[in-house]
User: What shape does this take?
Amino acid sequence: METDSISQQKLSKTEKKLRQKQMKARHTLFRHEGIECVSYPTKSLVIANGGLGNGVSRCQLLCVVEECGLVEALLMPPNKPYSFVTFGRTEDSKRAHDSLNGKEIMLEDSGQNVVLYFNFVEKVPWEDMMPTALPPGLKIIEDLVSPEEERQLLESIDWAEDESIPTAQQSLKHRRVKHFGYEFRYDNNNVDRDRPLPGGLPDICNTLLAKCLKMGYIKEKPDQLTINQYEPGQGIPPHIDTHSAFEDEIIALSLGAEIVMDFKHPDGHVAGIMLPQRSLLVMSGESRYLWTHGITPRKFDIIQASEVQKVRAVTADIGDLTLNKRRERTSFTFRKVRRSPCNCSYPSVCDSQREDTAPSFPINEREASKLEEKYVHEVYEGIATHFSSTRHSPWPRVVEFLRGLPCGAVVADVGCGNGKYLGVSKDLYTFGCDRSMTLMDICGEKGFQAFVCDALCVPLRSGSCDACISIAVIHHFSTVVATYWNISN
Ligand SMILES: C[S@@+](CC[C@H](N)C(=O)[O-])C[C@H]1O[C@@H](n2cnc3c(N)ncnc32)[C@H](O)[C@@H]1O
Ligand SMILES: [Zn+2]
Assistant: This one.
């Protein structure tokens, strides 16, 4: 009798905790996602923690919810940590709500456990989560090459070091890369037009390029090829291929495996596009010039559950998404090197149409002095007080030098700033000078001897000091001699 009541007490304690967690999930969903839950039974439930975003697969979740009745729809929004399930009957969803809340499932990928929390919703926000068609100008041609051609293309790649073109092949942090025709340089994201690589494009690509031209997928024959090999978990950061480097059409063949490529418009619109194995991606116009594309480094992709091979924007039918394990994928990206500036309709992202704001070198001492005035002296004058408050720790080697000087030595600190070295040793006669009036005032307030002057024209007789320091000053000079310009002259 006694044990019974204890266990009942325990049960209600766990039950209470569960209810609290359920409420917490409800609040989080509302606060972070604007999802409103209701306290009365409806046909639909939101399942907190049961999302593609935290590694739950569609299959796994379906198995769990189907225990409670006939499921009408399971909506798994991409990258979100929750899902929505709609049952045919309210009593089934009520059963799921009551019996599955707090259910623990083990993630297939990591082996970790997640706990699911169920709450009723009046409305499943299908429409809000229905994004995007394909980015304009983007095409995907399925089965461009046969499995046999795929095998031959993959076998043709010699990843071994090629001595004749040592820089043409690079092992980037994120993937293996090889270039043909022209080397793509990752330092300036461009190609060196005057230095084509010997050998041009591999002959094995001729057939498929001829097919692309014949079918009208491209208008001009490409002269540059980059082969990338991605292991599961590897990716490529979002980027737009440099406009000035390549012509409009860029094509990429996916071999060995399918992958999801993420496209993003500058307004924030995103589209995950499934690139099936052996398909050709054609990027032209807006999708080539304006949208970034990249591959998120991860081991699973979120894809259409019904047909792995189906080409479409992955986000277009989110009632049918699941996780797909990545395999090694090799891409052949063909581009045509551009020989004249790009005149696309997207100047905001076009390097050919960007105004030249690169700083130019001053043509004479007067110009140089003006630059120094603006970018050094005005700046120090403006920041003097703050600068002074951040400069209190003298550099140890400088202190060592000063303390090594004989007692009574006369020492000048040229460009002394707030005078942080002027008080280092009581045995020395130190004084400072600097171009900044405010910093010299600060030195004065500290009781140091200091005056305003230019370091290139110090009003001291030669041989009048025993030692001189000038710390972190010389890099500011833009002229050989100090030049004071009377602007009205
Ligand atoms: C980085 S701070 C170094 C200050 C000080 N020597 C220290 O180590 O804390 C550079 C200093 O050089 C001064 N300076 C820059 N160009 C100068 C010039 N032509 N003549 C005199 N002082 C100059 C600036 O006003 C500033 O106080
Ligand atoms: Zn452009």
